Amino acid sequence: MIPDIVSIGEGLVELNVVEPGPLRTARQYKVGWGGDTSNFVVAASHLGGRAGYITRVGADEFGQMLLDLWQTEGIDTSHVVIEPEGFTGIYFIARQGATHSFTYYRKDSAASHLKREDVPEDYIARAQVLHVSGITQAISQTACDAVSKAIGIARSANVRVSYDPNVRSRLWDLERARGVVLETIQYADFVFPSREDAELILGQSKPTQIAEQLLAWGARTVILKLGSEGALLATRYGEQRFAPFRVKVVDTTGAGDTFAGAFMVAYVEGKSLVDCARSANAAAALATTGAGAVEAIPRRAQVEAFLQSK
Ligand code: KDG
Fold it and tell me: Residue 167: which residues within 8 A CB-CB, separation 6 or more?
């Protein structure tokens, strides 16, 4: 299978508290999968896209668990490297209401050893979309370089670059994050920041101003994810606000990744930017209705039925 949508990054095994609360009181965890770019390819595949993933996993049980997920989901894994001596990262989710916090055990993981040599030129050049994230850039310098190489290939082959800054201040120093994120935005056709990302990178929290600054910085299309306030789509020709879909929120983990995955699938299908955003907004809302990053990512039929019911 030649994928239309390719991403590069780190998949993680996820342990999510069963009862909302901090980790110190947790006694039971629900085991699942996470990692923003992995969530993105799973969402793209659920929504009907042909997705491929470039990563490294350890030759361990958790690496196998991720490979099983990607293969079951029909994601191309021909560029997943299994590191004999490496380990696969994990993270815990503590939840309080709709907010969550992550605790990672991923430093020096196999995926953090991603490097330029892992990035296959033809694979990216034959795709229609390359999706990259700030988390991949944050996990190590070699992974950051691998992302730059992937973007370079995509741009010379006229492949659209989709970018989620996904700023995690636990993973890198804010000054470095600002420099790398602002540089990457200049090469991105689609930028999917959250309001929190924009606050950290631009020091700005007003949606219109965020969009204007990112467009001025070189982004071609900005899709600002506003969580319970919906989304804002902006290009240099104008902007449009998308009201949130009201759902019963259980866990917002992975909703932003689902948003970007659904948007890019609709884009590859030739839909208008407005239709892409509408479908993404619905998919992201549905993704919040279950616990964990992956389990609640909706299938295409669910998104279509949900949109028809509105
Ligand atoms: O977007 C959800 C991700 O943040 C989550 O799955 C864990 O990738 C993760 C990370 O590095 O925070």
Answer: 134, 177, 181, 196, 197, 200, 201
3-class SS letters over 278-297: HHHHHHHHHHCCCCCCCCCC
Selection from 88, 95, 91, 82 nearest residue 112 by Cα: 88
Tell me the pLDDT tens digit for each residue of 13-27: 999 999 999 999 999
Residue 1: the pLDDT is 84
Which residue, 100, 82, 79, 83, is CA-closest to 91?
100
Amino acid at 31: V
Query: By alpha-carbon position, which residue is closest to atom 9 of ligand 1?
Result: 35
Which ligand 1 atom lies nearest to the CA of residue 171? 11
Whole-angstrom CA distances from 158 to 125, 144, 179, 249, 278 are 8, 21, 25, 38, 25
Q: Residue 270: which residues within 8 A CB-CB, separation 6 or more?
A: none
End-to-end CA, the chain: 35
| Number of Cβ atoms within 10 Å of the Cβ of 277 | 25
In the beta sheet, which residues pair with residue 224? Answer: 232
Any ligand 1 atom below 6 A from CB of 106: no
H helices of 49-106, where?
Answer: 61-72
Q: Is 257's C-beta closer than 6 angstroms to any atom of ligand 1? A: yes
- Read off the pTM: 0.98
Residue 42 in contact with residue 166, Cβ under 8 Å?
no
